[in-house]
Amino acid sequence: MQISEFDFALPPDLIAVRPANPRDAARLLHVSARGLDDRAMADLPSLLRAGDLLIVNDTKVIPAQLEARRGAARIGITLDQAQADGAWRVLLRNARRVKAGDRLDIEKAEGFSAIVRMVADDGSAILQFNVTGEAFMQALAQAGALALPPYIPRPDGVNAQDQSDYQTLFATHEGAVAAPTAGLHFTPSLVAGIEARGARIARVTLHVGAGTFLPVRSDDVTLHNMHAERGVVSAAAADLINQTKRQGGRVICVGTTSLRVVESAADEHGIVQSFDASTDIFILPGYRFRVADLLLTNFHLPRSTLLMLVSAFSGMARIRQAYAHAIAEGYRFYSYGDATLLERA
What we know:
alpha/beta, QueA-like, 17 strands
């Protein structure tokens, strides 16, 4: 399976640099076997049934971008994934200036530093910071910045509006580098409409890592290595998902992150178990979905693992058709853009 099969041309003016206001004013393309239907996010409750279950990701984005110094050298740090022992896997800029044993002094927070445990050839590293827990989060709030995707330009730096815009209504558990962007479309009134329809909402957690921004570098996509991300599915959430399936309700994953963690937690019979571990699940066309019946997600980058996932979910031909329609109709793409509601092929 070649990377060229997942390529398309996107006019730059269709890349959203700010979200819709209000959030549920974003457009929604409903993609099903019956065809394509242009809707709005505010219409979502009308597309649901009593007994349906929406799965949302309640991760909270942290200010994961740091600047540090090793002597005179300036080193950029992007946090990726917390390790079990309190260290962090990170991505480094100017990594060639860093070796194991070095101390990195973090700028903008007095006394905040890290020891380099290991540096890999791909520019990733393991850092042991000198503070942990709540003290670490306080230092991060002082020194860090949001790691917005590279296609959202902020030449003067991330501003206060982004601090609000780039966080979902459900954000609870700190640890994500990037937002689970399908969740950005939800408002209290939209949630009320969903519940009035007789549908329910369950929460899972997947801490989206910096690897979400990394391109697929191999022509043969099956050779790509996914970065692991930490996920949690509680026993209560697993029970609610299994109950919904038994009773004939549909499971609607809000975002590829919710889908990935739920599919990681399911056994070969589609029964979801409680889950608290890292997952590097890589979903390509041919994957057999065990849990998700529908997927609410944004429009994704060409040649990306997320485009491969939605192509697996709805079929490559249907996704090509949907994306061509969206471009022709002026839908807004990527993190702050519009949404699709995909039915499983």
